[in-house]
Structures are given as structure tokens and as C-alpha cells.
Amino acid sequence: MNSQAITQPNAQMLLDIKDLRIWYRTTRGNAQAVDGVDLVINRNEIFGLAGESGCGKTTLARGVLGMTKLPGYVESGEAIYYHPVSDSSVVGRDLLTLPAREMRQMRWRHIAYVPQGAMNVLSPVLRIEKQILDAIYEHSDLSKEEARARMFECMEMVGLDRTVARMYPHELSGGMKQRVTIAAAISLKPGLIIADEPTTALDVNVQQVILQELKDIAASLGVTLIYVTHDMAVHAEMADRLGIMYSGLIVEVASVVEAFKEPLHPYSQGLIASIPMIGGDRSRMVGIPGNAPSPLAWPSGCRFHPRCPKVMEICRDKVPPMLEVAPGRFVACHLYPTPMSGAAPASEELN
Amino acid sequence: MRKLLRKYPVLGYYFNKVFTYFVTIFGALTITFFMFRLIPSNPIQNWVMSLERQYSVTIEGGDAMINRYKEQFGLTGTLWDQYVGYLRQLILKGDLGPSFIAFPTPVQDLMIAAIPWTIALLSVSIIISWSLGLLIGSTAAWFRDKSVSDIITNVSIGLSQVPSYLIALFLVLFLGYQWKLLPTRGAFDAQYQIGWNLDFIRSVIAHSFLPALAIVMVSLSGWILSTRSLVISNIGEDYLIYAEAKGLKPRKIMIGYALRNAMLPQATGLALTMGSMVSGQLLIESMFVYPGLGQVMSRAIAIFDYNTMMGIIILSVVSVMTASLIVDLLLPAIDPRIRTAIKA
After folding, report:
1. Which of B145, B237, B335 faces A70 most closely, judged by CB atoms?
2. What are the C-alpha distances in Å from A321 to residues A251, A303, A325, B294?
3. Which residue of A67, A81, A123 to mutate against B (max B Cβ within 10 Å)?
4. Under a CB-based contact definition with an 8 Å cutoff, are residues A304 and A321 in contact?
5. What is the pLDDT of residue B57?
């Protein structure tokens, strides 16, 4: 067995990702999509994972589910998931080295997934009930009646009518399909749900309702949620803590309030400055200059230095380490070489 | 009527399909009739001439004889008269006219004697090769990164290019003559009495084994390759990634999700192949001297027997059309999306 007890550093920790690297083999070398991610997810929190397209968010999410597909592969790193086996003991298992069979049993039972683009994730030729029930049967010993009762219970939580169970995916709207995926994800009361841009394809008012439902469900079931999206407005709404990803790395982790009020990393500052403010001064939208770098050849030193407005000499050569600059605030930037004392360096004023 | 249609919109769909069915059959029948009459060859003339040559005599009153036969074969009058006469005979009496290869046995009697052999041989071998093809093809798709898949794929591509008669020849040569494992000619041993007795049935199975094997080997590679590409094109689909994220067993994902979605076109393909089977496997039936429709057809072609050729072609048109009609009528049951499209 691979699940030898790994002592848990603290009781709050649910998932501990250490120096994770997931690369893709290509003819032009390795695309280092996820390249050195360190991240701790705590129990019962909603963790927002932000970053622009192509920064490795989805690769990271799939990697944690053990679903890295060729030509992608895990180059190195650990992702230790702590789950209780009894009232008193907790077992930590490295998701990346679990045998395929055990990893398969972990999925949905412990780590569920709400996918990107719910439009196509349901098989068009199977009824909704079949697609929810097959996961329940696979991972539990529930009888047919119990499983159906569980399914209806979950559907009710996301506001779906019972009749939906007998329908086919093409008979549902985008919002309803997304609700189906949420109902399916909570059907086994997993410890962790990874939601990968679930509402991106929906229109704003439906998105709003579903986000609220998801948030309420996470709170009432005591589920930890990793919410992946590039949409900062959604993060502001949903997340407890926010991780900002850039070029395969997490560059900043902070509580959502702090991250919005006072972003530390110049990239985070740019990301947050680019959100239009309602009722603010009329001004030109501020973007981040330049393009995202290629994962085939990350820039030397700090990967953000070619686009950074505050670039210094050291940034070109030396990789900034991730430091805890204040309790619970992590940033990887040479501007913050030591724990901060008092005021942060100049950053944009935010309402 | 209109009220009924509003209540069951699917009825309109069915009516539409059945109507198209009859129109298409009629059209195909007309086209084949005129095509054959346009070919500048005359079986009766040929026959009389070959008789004359064979016995090096001149048949007295040959012209009168030709005319009498022409009348029997419906070859007198204008082309239009012939057409109307043929249709009247066919529709009113179900009569396809006398055959030439076994004169004066009517074509329909010849066909009825041959059909059971062809259907028994082909339906079994088609179903075997379809199921095997689906199984092997989806396995090849599923393990597309493994060398097993490469081997299956390349062997199939190779086999799909080998002509059926070559495969049949090799089977006859090795299994039939070299090792004398199986009989290679006919459909049963003449020493047994035809009927439902064990010896006869055993003999029929032994005789059909080689032709069936040849047909399976010829058609299997096609089913493997098409299933493989259908399943592979499904593999990137979000619903498979989602099924995997649900932690379902790989076999369940492959059969319940990947193959289930690739099945729709393959089910249609099976039905159409079943429909086209009554025209028989010309080469294979001739090779094994199997008394099916294919063999009747090849004999008919050899001496340009209009009526028999027409009869077999009409039968195969009707059966292909019937098979595709059945698919069309069944599709709403297999594919839920069509049901909704009809309702809308």
C-alpha cells in the first residue's frame, strides 16, 4: 500500500502540493505548463485559483485529479491529500504516486470535479439519472433506492426538478446542465471539489445564481472547494483565499480581501487594476503590457520580469522564492525580500 | 388526421419515410429496367447462335423460334410496352418472368431456392464480423498508445486491401486441400437427407465454415477500422474526461460512454450491410460452389439472363431500402436527439 501514514503538519490542512511540475512533451522540447507549484489548501475553505489563459490552471486541476494525459506527465512533486479514516486518525496519501486503481477510487469519493464547459460533459445518449447514478454505484454500497434518494436530494439542493432525472442532456439549458454537474459532484459528499471554470459559458445572471448555490452547498456540506477561473469578479464573490498563478507558478497567496485591497505582486496588481470599477473615475482600462511567455522557454529569473513595471536588476537572474511576508500572505517577488513591517510598497489605490 | 399528427408528430416522420421508400424503389426499378434494355445484347439470339455453332447446323425456322421465345420473355413490342408489361406481371402476379439459366423455371422460384442459403451464410458471418469488429476496433482505439493498437490497425489496413477471392483461395488451399480439415464445395453432403436432422445440420455447418470464415476475414478489417476511428474521434470528448473524473472503471467508460456514442453510425452500417447481403457474395459463393443468390447471379451474368439479373437486382434494391427504412424508423428509439428534433 502506498498510503503509509504521512504525519499531517496541521489539522486544518487538506491538500499539500509541493513543488509540482507537470510538463508536456512536444517536438520543440518540454512545455512546462505547471512548473514548481507550492500550495496548501485548508479544510472547509473556498480557494480561488486565478490567472490568465495558458498559465497552467487547468493542468494543475487535472493533475491533482490524477488525470494528466499524454503527452503531459508529472515531472516531479507531491500532492498529499489528507482524509480521515476514523474519528481520530487521518491518512495522507500522495495523489501523484497512487496506483491507477486506488486513484480511481479516490475520485468522486474524496475529490470530485465540476468541469469546464458543462455543455459537452454529459453523454448525449444517456439519461441524466444514469450519469449521476453510475458514479454513486461505483463508489458506494448504496442500494438502488438509496442511491436514487441520494440523487434526488442532491438535485434538490441545486434547485433541479425531479423530472430532470429522466431527461437527456440536449433537453436541458446550459445552466441546468451545470447544476447537474454540481449535483453529481456532491452526490458522494466528497472532501474536496475542484471546479474548473464551471460558469464561464453561462450568462451573467445564471452564473450569479449558480455561484451562490455552490457557495451555500460548500458551506452546508463542509466541502472544500478549489475554484479555478480567470474571472476576478467571480473570485471576489466566491473565494476565501486567492492564489494567483502566472506562467506555471503560484506567485501570490492571500485572503481574498487582502488580495483585492492590497495586491503585492506586480502581476497581481496589474490583474486587479484591470477590473473595471462601477462608479469609479472614468479612466482608460489598464492592462498588463506584453504577452504571456511560452511554457517552452520561461524567462530567466522571475518569469514576470519582461512585463513587470517594477523590474529590477536582480529579477533577470535570480528566481524569487515564495516567502511568507505577513501571517498567511505569501508572495514570490524580489520587492519583498523580508517580512513586511507596516505599510506595503506603493500600490494602486482601490475602492 | 391533422389532430392525430399534432398529437403524435412522429407519425408525420414515419409517413414521410415510408413514402420516400416506395418512390425510391419505383425509381430504381425503372432505371434498372431501361439500363438492361439499352445493352446491345440479346440472350436468345446468342443462345440460338451458340446452339447452331455447337452442332454446326442451321436451325430451321430459327427466326420463328426466336420470336416465340421473345414473346415468352416479354421482349416484343416497343420498349414502353415491355416496361408496362413487366410491371403489370410483377405487381399483379409477383412474376419476374422465366429464367434463362434454368429455362423454363420462373426467376422467383430460382431465387426462393437460393435465398435461404445466402441469408443463413451471410447473416451469421456479417453479425460475427460486426460484433468482433466493434470489440476489436474499440479496444484498438482505447489502447491507442500501446503497440497492440498499432498491430491491430496495421494488420487491418493490410487485410482490407486483400481481395476476397485471394483470401478464399488460401483458405481452400490450406484448410481444404492441404490439411483436409473442412469441405470446400457445396452447402451440404449429398448423402444426408435434407431436413432438421443432426447429420444434415452438422454437414451444413461444416460446409459453411470456410465461406463464412472468408467473408468474416474480408469484412472484419473494415468494421475494425471504422469503429476504431469513430471511438478515437470520441476520445477527446469532454464526456469521456468527465466519466474518468467520476472514477468509473476504464472498461465501463469504454463500453458505456465511448462505444455507446460510436454505436449509432455502426448500427446504421450493420442494417445497410444486412440489406445488401441478399445480392450475395458473388466471388465467394462461386469459389465455394455455394448454392446462394450470388452464384445464381454469376451464372445469369455469364449468359446475359435479363430476367434473373433484374430479379436479383430488384430484390437487393428492395432489401437495402427496407433495411434503411427500418433504421430510419428505429433511430428515434436509439438516439434521443432525433426524438426531440421531430417534436420541434
Report:
1. B145
2. 9, 12, 11, 79
3. A123
4. no
5. 67
What are the grid coordinates assigned to A135, written together?
458514479
Residue B260 has pLDDT above 60, yes or no: yes
From chain A, the residues in CB contact with B238 under 8 A are 115, 117, 119-121
Give the gap in angstroms from C-alpha B227 to the nearest C-alpha of chain A: 17
Choose, out of B234, B246, B257, B266, the residue to mutate when testing the contact with A (most A CBs < 10 Å): B246
pTM: predicted TM-score of the whole model, two decimal places: 0.73
What is the set of domains in chain A, with CATH numbers?
10-110+190-201+214-276+286-344 (3.40.50.300), 118-189 (no CATH)
Low-confidence ranges of chain A (pLDDT < 70): 1-9, 86-88, 117-118, 277-286, 339-351
The CB-side HSE value for B292 (13 A sphere, CA atoms) comes to: 28
Q: Test A139 with B247 for CB contact under 8 angstroms.
A: yes
Pairing of the two strands A111-114 and A192-196: parallel
Q: What is the mean pLDDT of residues B298-305?
A: 83
pLDDT, position B21: 92
Amino acid of residue A5: A
For residue A32, the model assigns a pLDDT of 82
- Taking the CB of residue B25, how many other CB atoms lie within 10 A of it? 17
Q: What is the pLDDT of residue A284?
A: 67
> Do the Cβ atoms of A67 and B239 come within 8 Å?
no
Does the complex come out with an ipTM higher than 0.85?
Answer: no
Instruction: Give contacts of B243 with chain A, Cβ < 8 Å.
Output: 123
Contact (CB<8Å) B336/A125 = yes
Is the pLDDT at B132 greater than 90, yes or no? yes
Question: Please, what is the average pLDDT of chain B?
Answer: 82
Give the C-alpha distances (Å, rounded to integers) separating B131 from A46, B278, B322.
Answer: 49, 20, 22
Strand A249-255 vs strand A323-326: parallel, antiparallel, or unpaired?
A: unpaired
pLDDT in tens, A263-314: 888 888 888 887 776 666 666 666 777 777 888 888 888 888 888 888 888 8
Check CB contact of A104 with chain B, cutoff 8 Å: yes
pLDDT tens-digit readout, B4-49 = 777 777 778 888 889 999 999 999 989 988 888 887 777 777 777 7
- Which chain B residue has the Cα nearest residue A61? B245
Which residues of chain A neighbour B245 with C-beta distances below 8 Å? Answer: 65, 67, 107-108, 112-113, 115
3-state secondary structure string across B253-304 = HHHHHHHHHHHHHHHHHHHHHHHHHHHCCHHHHHHCCCCCHHHHHHHHHHCC
pLDDT, tens digit, 9 for 90 and up, residues B149-187: 899 999 999 888 888 788 888 888 888 788 877 777 777
> Which of B238, B334, B340 comes nearest A121 by C-beta?
B238
For chains A and B, count residue pairs whose Cβ atoms are closer than 8 Å.
77
A261: contact with B, CB 8 A cutoff: no
Per-residue pLDDT at B194 exceeds 50:
yes
Do residues A332 and A321 make contact, with C-beta atoms less than 8 angstroms apart?
A: yes
Query: Going from the N-terminus, what domains does chain B have, and what CATH number goes with each?
Result: 109-303 (1.10.3720.10)
Alpha carbon A136 to its chain centroid, in Å, reads: 24
Chain B residues with a Cβ under 8 Å from any Cβ in chain A = 145, 237-239, 241-249, 252, 256-257, 260-261, 264, 334-337, 340
Hey, of A125, A171, A188, which one would you mutate to test binding to chain B, going by the most B CBs within 10 A of its CB? A125
Q: Is the dihedral of CA A131, A134, A135, A141 positive or negative?
A: positive
